[in-house]
Amino acid sequence: MTDKATTDVATDTSSALERRIEMTVALAEIDKDVEQRLKQMSRTVKMAGFRPGKVPMKMVAQQYGSQARSEAIGAAVEKAYGEKIREQKLRVAGYPRIEPKADASPGLLGFTAIFEVYPDIALADISGQAITKPILTVTDAEVAKTLDVLRKQRTTYVETDRPSANDDRLVIDFVGRKDGEEFAGGKASDFAVMVGGGQMLPDFEAQLVGVKAGDKKVFDVNFPADYQAAELAGKTVQFEVTVKKVESARLPEIDADFAKQLGVADGDVDKMRVEVRSNLEREVKKRLLAKTKEQVMEAMLTVNPIEVPKALVEVESQQMADAARRDMESRGMGMKNIPVEASWFTEQATRRVKLGLLLAELVKEKDLHVKPEQVRAIVDEFAETFEDPKEVVRWYYSQPERLAEAEALALENNVVDWVLANTKVSETPIAFDELMGNAA
């Protein structure tokens, strides 16, 4: 096609990031392109009773005319749109929406291309922002707490004939009745429940203290007004419980067998403590950085309020929904008939897109690009916890998508370091339980 296909192109800004390009395409040029396309098709088109390349043009036009015209119009609009985008040096986000216009002049087809552009970002001064950097030094006390957690994860239970107490495990049968009738979901057999574990409603669990195997109890339970099952919300029902077993919790001793369970082949308890401390220090470092990074990102958003293209948010939302679906499927949840809507992730996706654009601009403006040795340091740190670190390093460098994760992390670290160097930073000790998410 010739440049005559575009006779009028204008740009209109109707919102901060939305753009509209008005285009008119000459019908004569469309007709010329259609003719060329049909001639090209006629060389290879096959029809019954004709040899290839010998089908009359009239029949080719009847069969493929609509297709050729649609392709010609699409090509003309795309060409006109592309030329204007390049001419104005617009950074388009997503794909345009093309709408026909009914008021074009005779001999012309009118179209409007509606699309979004990336925002122009002028990074604001961040020096006035305050960052509170949490600090924590791993001591013997933190190692001991971690060992207690590891012991509890390996708890075994032994049947006992004494009355039940908190942290015991009971095996029970129960049936619930409302107004004398059993209700859905209120019955179970051989049900295991921890005394004081918060698994059941408080009124129910309170009745499980001080019972022995063979006991049978009947008691009332008050369901809260906001209970998820509307038919039970705010109601009082009666439960009948039969206690089959009372099992006492037994924590493993910190000995050679315990060390072997934690991967220390020779059962050396001192070596186990060293490994636990090393792993804990890595985890603490990671969590401290995550908390600092969260404040850094919030500071970037605070001083740089920007509007982002809806098209990018929609793509990010869909990717997050797909990731959530894959995660749930990997956990054995059947997701075939359970919708995961992209709209659920719009707020998170908007934040991600904003940060992505801001960080990209900061990296470019301050030359915070990742160096190979930074990526290697992160990969080496990942590999430390494995039996054969060298093999893990080779695996990362042979998997582009995995290496990209390390590169992204290194880039974020560069941003964090720059922001910390250019803001008001104070250090504040953080409690171990708070950092690890064990606070009551």
Whole-number tally of structural domains: 3
Q: Note the overall shape.
A: extended
How many strand units? Answer: 11
Spatial extent as radius of gyration: 34 Å
Uncertain runs: 1-11
Order of helices and strands: EEHHEEEHEEEHEEHHHHHHHEH
Summed up, the helix count is: 12
Category from helices, strands and their pairing: alpha+beta
CATH superfamily of the largest domain: Trigger factor, C-terminal domain
Main beta sheet, described? 5 strands, antiparallel
CATH architecture of the largest domain: Orthogonal Bundle
Q: Which fold name fills CATH's third level, the topology of the largest domain?
A: Trigger factor, domain 2
End-to-end separation in angstroms reads 72 Å
Mean pLDDT: 90
- % residues in beta strands: 15-25%
Percent of residues in helices comes to: 40-55%
CATH level-1 class of the largest domain: Mainly Alpha
Which key terms come to mind for this protein?
440 residues; alpha+beta; Alpha-Beta Plaits; Trigger factor, domain 2; Chitinase A, domain 3; 3 domains; four-stranded antiparallel sheet; 22% strand; extended; disordered N terminus
Written description of the protein model:
- There is one protein chain.
- With about 450 residues, the chain is an alpha+beta fold.
- The chain has helices at about 25-40, 55-90, 140-155, 200-205, 255-260, 270-305, 310-330, 345-365, 370-385, 390-400, 400-420, 430-435; strands spanning about 5-15, 20-25, 90-100, 110-115, 130-135, 155-160, 170-180, 180-195, 215-220, 235-250, 425-430.
- The strands form 3 sheets. Strands 6, 7, 8, 9 and 10 form a 5-stranded antiparallel sheet that branches. A 4-stranded antiparallel sheet has the order 1-2-4-3.
- The longest helix is centred in the middle third of the chain and has 35 residues, at about 270-305.
